[in-house]
User: What shape does this take?
Amino acid sequence: MARKPIMAGNWKMNMNHVDAVGLVQKLAFTLQDKGYDPEASECVVIPPFTGIRTVQTLIEGDRLPIVHGAQDVSEHDDGAYTGDISADMLAKLGCTYVIVGHSERRQYHGETDELVNAKAVKALSKGLTPIICVGESLEVRKAGQHVEFTVAQVRGALAGIPAGQVAGLVIAYEPVWAIGTGEVATPEDAQEVCGAIRRAVTELYDEATGQSVRIQYGGSVKPGSVTAIMAKPDIDGALVGGASLKPDDFAAIVRFY
Ligand code: PEP
Assistant: This one.
């Protein structure tokens, strides 16, 4: 089964809701200018929570070939969880995707594999597609444990999620040492782990699920590095931080084909 490439821009804590308008408009204009075909790759923008409503209104109002998502979601339905945002709230804002388990959440907010799993389950229950982030630190890579470590994170994140749902979700392999550092993994490094993730999903479920799940690479992806990464057989897209704030760069990444 052909997997549609997915290019997702994680804006992190950048762009207030006013700045978001300019960024999405410029992105849409540049995509059009480059002859972007939404059938050939998916273009996803992931603003901070405060920008989601504005971005939704712009995308829907102008019928832009862009979908949007959120950077995190609560594992709870509703209630006394100050500062949290529920999956239901995100679904009402037209979000298609939600990132769970980004390494910055794991690092600064102590998110564990169990919590990432609970968030993914909650997102799926409200019709959102989780982008589940996994990936090793430099220490783990230097110890040669990067494949085992990352596959263990995948197993933890998918615990109890049925094959039918796993087939539709997205896993982002993001080696922590490559995020925001300018240190992009080689295409071979990225393929090694993305291939192992697909084999693990196939072993946990079945061939069809393994072939269907989309796996992104993330970590300092730029227009100049995307083509070689996308040429690898088990890489179906990119999760992009810094370059997604530059409309020309992100449009070039989306239009990699
Ligand atoms: C990210 O935050 O998911 C990311 C990959 O960031 P950057 O592209 O800036 O390394």
